[in-house]
Amino acid sequence: MKIKNWFEEKIRRLTFWDMCAIKITLIIFGIIIGAYISTFVKQYVWYFVIVFIVLYAVVVYRFFKKW
Q1: Residue 51 domain boundaries
Q2: I need a labelling partner for 23 at 20 to 30 A (CA). Which of 51, 55, 62, 67 fits?
């Protein structure tokens, strides 16, 4: 149960903008996965990958910042 409490504490510290970044990151991840279905997304997949990596790094940094 220690790890569950640790995660809950970290999640409570997230701001509105952190939650927005998490949601956008997950949406872009879905777009990247969907790139193999849509030709439009396939031509811009590297832009989506770059945005995903940047947002993911921001979320991970903010999550572990005060650890």
Answers
A1: 2-64
A2: 67
What pLDDT, on the 0 to 100 scale, is given for residue 55? 87
The residue length of the chain stands at 67
What is the dihedral sign for C-alpha 41, 21, 51, 3?
negative
Q: What is the spatial distance between Cα 35 and Cα 46, in angstroms, rounded to a whole number? A: 10
Total domains, the chain: 1
d(CA 63, CA 26): 16
DSSP assignments along 5-62, one per residue: HHHHHHHHT--HHHHHHHHHHHHHHHHHHHTTT-HHHHHTHHHHHHHHHHHHHHHHHH
pTM: predicted TM-score of the whole model, two decimal places = 0.52
For residues 62 and 54, is the Cβ–Cβ distance under 8 A?
Answer: no
